DNA sequence: CCGGATCCTCGGTGATACTG
DNA sequence: CAGTATCACCGAGGATCCGG
């Protein structure tokens, strides 16, 4: 019946039959950021063969993880989006990202950085309690990709692309990790030119509090991207 | 360098390169219950080819997820166990189990139930706050496999096999889910013969409180095994 | 340009047999 | 018990082509 079944009556086995195929969870990762067209997914996953992408989307659709939606006029076309069931994978994908980031090491030349993966990395580093009472818009230029984060009293809305009217525009010229772990203070990072900002330096201080990683206590250090 | 890399500098991608290969997370699932020998893993995963099992164990060992250990005398041999890094996958595996259990449906004839998968299913259903101040040992016969759970003031230690001196021995003759969701009261389940117990009926009441699933609120219903 | 389908190759998987 | 060896097969990888 189900091809390539594990033959076990077990939630883990069933989950892997649904989203355990190659590329499937990376497609879900990008769709967690927002609905995407076939070509958007292709751009975010340059190494996926198009026949595999099409096959995965069909399988995920059949499993109730993904839904096709015809785009309204005028920008006709099709988008893929997560169903509610698919959206419940967010915690798992974030957990995998945190776990895998510990093995990231240095960025290899052939490895690319995509906007959607950076948005998810930002979400893994988010500390809602540190964002209480804060309302600010950030535009981040990380490793050549542009994403944005809007904070509104403990809530984070992050997505790909620039942000008109951002309160702070932050551009990195080096790995961001030392700044987020606290190894380097915001002032020192600015002085050494590791990051450039347009806007209030105060907002950079807030940023590292809200997206702090480590420091080797509550969560193991080196556990988020931004390498 | 790394074969079959996704080519993305992203924690999720790296995680999937390590534990995303077929069978890998099911091996981790079983090792989360405790150290296992090659043959133990084979028994728990009857459909895995032995060369694949050997290959996965090597890959996981090289990635720092699994460690080989020579068994001390007299019971000589080798066991595989999770490293600390591998153990950090517990939350992800439990999350996958919860998520996938929603798609379990009815048990198909060709699907087996294993002790290790039931132990993990029990852990996903565990509510520590409901176990505060309770000290009890359970032996559970679920779908033909025997596992045990020891509760000690909010802590759960569950493993495969029987439990000498258990306070309650519970044997199911039908899916356990209705009992754990609250659809059926413990008294009714006993009366209808869905479960048989040896020990104080009170301990059955406690059991369903501590391992309650649903009721369609805090966690979506039908989200755990015991089908 | 979007959204795939098609064709071909290659290597990982699956199944089984065999060995230290 | 703990794997290795062999081989058929099919899904992944890669390129191209095609209809809207």
From TrEMBL, chains A, B:
Q: Does the keyword Transcription regulation apply?
A: yes
PROSITE patterns hit by this protein:
HTH_HXLR
Q: What InterPro entries does its record include?
A: HTH_HxlR (IPR002577), SCP2_sterol-bd_dom_sf (IPR036527), WH-like_DNA-bd_sf (IPR036388), WH_DNA-bd_sf (IPR036390)
Keywords, comma-separated and alphabetical: DNA-binding, Transcription, Transcription regulation
One Pfam family hit: HxlR
Q: Which residue intervals define the domain HTH hxlR-type in the entry?
A: 10-108
Protein name in the entry:
Transcriptional regulator, HxlR family
Taxonomic classification, please? Bacteria, Pseudomonadati, Thermomicrobiota, Thermomicrobia, Thermomicrobiales
């Amino acid at each position: 019946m189900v091809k390539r079944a594990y033959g076990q009556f077990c939630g883990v086995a069933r989950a892997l039959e649904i989203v355990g195929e190659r590329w499937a969870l990376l497609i879900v990762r990008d769709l967690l950021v927002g609905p995407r067209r076939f070509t958007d997914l292709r751009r975010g996953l340059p190494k996926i063969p198009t026949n595999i992408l099409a096959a995965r989307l069909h399988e995920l659709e059949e499993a109730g993880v993904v839904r096709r939606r015809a785009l309204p006029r005028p920008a006709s076309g099709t988008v893929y989006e997560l169903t509610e069931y698919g959206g419940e994978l967010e915690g798992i994908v974030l957990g995998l990202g945190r776990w895998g980031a510990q093995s990231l090491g240095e960025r290899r030349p052939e490895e690319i950085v995509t906007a959607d993966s950076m948005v998810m990395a930002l979400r893994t580093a988010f500390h809602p309690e540190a964002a209480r009472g804060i309302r600010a818009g950030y535009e981040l230029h990380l490793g050549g990709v542009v994403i944005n984060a809007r904070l509104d009293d403990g809530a984070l809305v992050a997505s790909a692309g620039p942000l008109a009217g951002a309160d702070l525009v932050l551009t990195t010229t080096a790995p961001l990790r030392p700044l987020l772990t606290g190894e380097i203070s915001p002032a020192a990072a600015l002085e050494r030119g590791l990051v450039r900002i347009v806007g209030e330096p105060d907002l950079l201080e807030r940023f590292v509090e809200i997206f702090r990683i480590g420091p080797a206590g509550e969560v193991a250090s080196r556990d988020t991207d931004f390498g």
